[in-house]
Every structure is written in structure tokens, then in C-alpha cells.
Amino acid sequence: MSALPGPTADGGPTAAVGPTADGGALAVVRRGWRALTWYVTGVLGESDYPRYVAHLRRVHPDAAVPTVREYWRDRYAAQDANPGARCC
Fold first, then answer.
1. 16 falls in which pLDDT band (50, 70, 90)?
2. Which residue of 42, 62, 73, 86 is 20 to 30 Å from 52, comparing CA positions?
3. Is the entire prediction scored with pTM above 0.90?
């Protein structure tokens, strides 16, 4: 038995399978680019502030939301005070 799809009941071909099924190679490239962008922004910490603000508003609705500059200043100060397991 073959795992590949056969013709439909009327004898016509089945829908495309693989990279072309959802719009072609360009869709695959776009999906890959979005994944790479998501990974790089996560590694660089670009999404940290918006995630922190969402947490702050959800868990501590009465707390003042710091500016981006205040957030990063406090974060770097905390990292310098408690270096943990980092190399530098």
C-alpha cells in the first residue's frame, strides 16, 4: 500500500501535498522568516518589555507601569547585582 494520496473518486488528482499545498515555496519562506524573526527577537529580549507590561497589568493592575527606559535600567541593575550563572 502506498502512503501517497491517489486520485479522487472522479479520477481527478488530489490536493497537493507538501510545501505547495499552502501556497508554494514563498509561503514556506515566509513561515521560516517569521520563525527566525520570532527566535532572534526572543534571544535579544525585544519582546521582554511588552510581555512584562502585560503581566503587570494582568497580575498587578494597580501597579504603575514603568517606561521602557526604566524597565531596562532596573533589569540591568538587577542582573549586575545578582549575576547568577553567566560568564561575564
1. low
2. 86
3. no
